[in-house]
Every structure is written in C-alpha cells, then in structure tokens.
Write a structure and sequence with these properties.
The complex is a heterodimer of chains A (136) and B (114).
Chain A: H1 3-9, H2 12-50, H3 54-68, H4 73-87, H5 90-100, H6 117-135
Helix pairs in contact in A: 2-3
Chain B: H1 6-29, H2 31-53, H3 57-73, H4 75-89, H5 92-98, H6 105-113
Classes of the chains: A mainly alpha (136), B mainly alpha (114).
Amino acid sequence: MDLWTILASWNPLDWILKPATDIMDTVNLLILGFKIVILLFIVQFVRGRFGGGPIVTILILVLGYVMLFSNLAPIFTTAMFIYLFIIFGFSMLVMDLVIAKPWAGGGGEEEGGHTTGKEYSERLAKTRAVQRRFFR
Amino acid sequence: MKMGFLPPMILLLFILLFVMLLPLFLAKIFPEFDWILKAYFSIIIFSFVRRILGGGIMTYIVSGILIYIFVFQLFWLFTPAYMLFLIVGLGLSGIIVFGLPGRGMGRRSGVARQ
C-alpha cells in the first residue's frame, strides 16, 4: 500500500470516534458485570431473609427487575455503588484522612516540627565545636 | 510550615496509584505472573458466587460470565480495583495516610527527635 492510498483512506474522525466507541463498549460491559453482581447481592439478601422456594425466586426476579431494569435503576444502582464503597471500607480511608489531617501543616518552629537542612547543619557545627573543645 | 491541601493529597494519590498499578506492570513484564493473577481472581470470583448461589449449575454459568467480563475483558480495570480494595479493606490505608507529612507519624517522630 503506497503513501497516497494511506493518506486518502485516512479519516480524522476515526481518531475521535473509534476510541469513544471502544470506551462505550467497555463501560457497557462494566455495567453488565456490575448488574450481575448486584443481582447476586439481591439473591443473597432475599435468601438470607426468606430462605428458599418459588415465592422467593419470584421476589428475587421482581426486585431484580425493579432495581436493575426499571426507570428507578439509576437511583438503585448508584445507591448500591455507594453502599459497596462503604462496606469495602472507604469510609475508613476518609476517617483516617480526617483524623490525620495531613494538609494541616507539618508544624513550625514553635511546634517543634520538621528540622530544615539549615538548622540541621547549624546544630551539627555546634556539636562538632563542642566535641573539638572536649577532646582537645 | 503549612503544607496546604493539595501536596499531601497528590502524594497519597501517587502512592495509591503506584500500589494499584504495580500488578499490572508485573503482569506485563512477567507473563507467568499474569496467569497466576488471572487464576487467583477466577478462584475469588467463583468462591464469591458459590457462597451466594450454592454448588449448582447456575454457579458455574454466573461465575463463568463474571470471570469472562472482569478477568479476561476488564483485567486492566479489575486488578487496580482489587488492589485498592485490599489496601482499604485490610486497613493498610491507615499506614499510608499516617505516614504522610503533616500531623501524622512524620511530625510526631520529628517532635520525638527534638
């Protein structure tokens, strides 16, 4: 294939549209996987409360339809996503950040915080002077 | 000295990203590690589904679908997510957060030195 054929067949829109369609395929696949996982959580919840049997299976199907495929699905899936984040312990991460407050500052001189390089070299010079006087 | 909000958060994000992306790099470098990781994730997904659905044929079907989606199609997304889940779920995030410069361990050790 010569250069002219390559240039003639080059469509700039492909550079924009093809990755976008790829991303949408990935997102749709991810949503499908999450829907199956949420359905499993629903099954676990309903079986844990009501045991087995045909009525429970119907209840699972109804709940699965309402929570995953009806008009209310975005609300339920968002809530479920937040719930998953909480039970996986992300609230612990936020609490650690609030307790530790790493943005509140590393402490100043009045608080006895980090030692700067200049302070360290001055202190080292003083210590060496004392040592020289002592061991003379 | 005030650190500000952004530098510790960027550092935290950088550490988390490093830990999350490390298995992906290792899997890229060593193909054996890639297969071990995929087998491990498959076992985890299968045991998760079996715990909920029991040992029937539905377990194999659902876990097969989930393994195909998360382990083989979305491996690059599932591995960092699982590493983040490990860091947060096992409480290792506390070590990272309290190790950040600020009012964490770094400052306390600075006080103890003086």
